[in-house]
Amino acid sequence: MERSPLSENERRVLAQMEHALRQDRHFALRMGDQVPVQRPRRRGLPEAMGSGRGLVLLCLLSLALMITGIATAHTPVTVAFAAVWTATLALAAVWLFARSARRRRR
Fold it and tell me: Contacts by 39-46 with C-beta closer than 8 Å and gap 24+?
């Protein structure tokens, strides 16, 4: 039996079909495909915050609120400082945990 070569259009359509099938993880596993399925990369917390600039800004805001609260002795400023400082510490803990988890995966 003679094989005729595929036209350019047929090769392109075949390549698109193969690509679509490789993206279907369940299909690839059923077919025993050894080619790893490429997943879209999601941005984690460390990447979304860059090099921690958001954390630095929250620290500076906390410092400004602390100084203002001490200087003026206004309760709302002190409460705002407590809220911002708590959020800063929580975000720093999550950011550091996510960063260390990402380094362990490498």
Answer: 44/98, 44/102, 45/94, 45/95, 45/98, 45/99, 46/95, 46/98, 46/99, 46/102
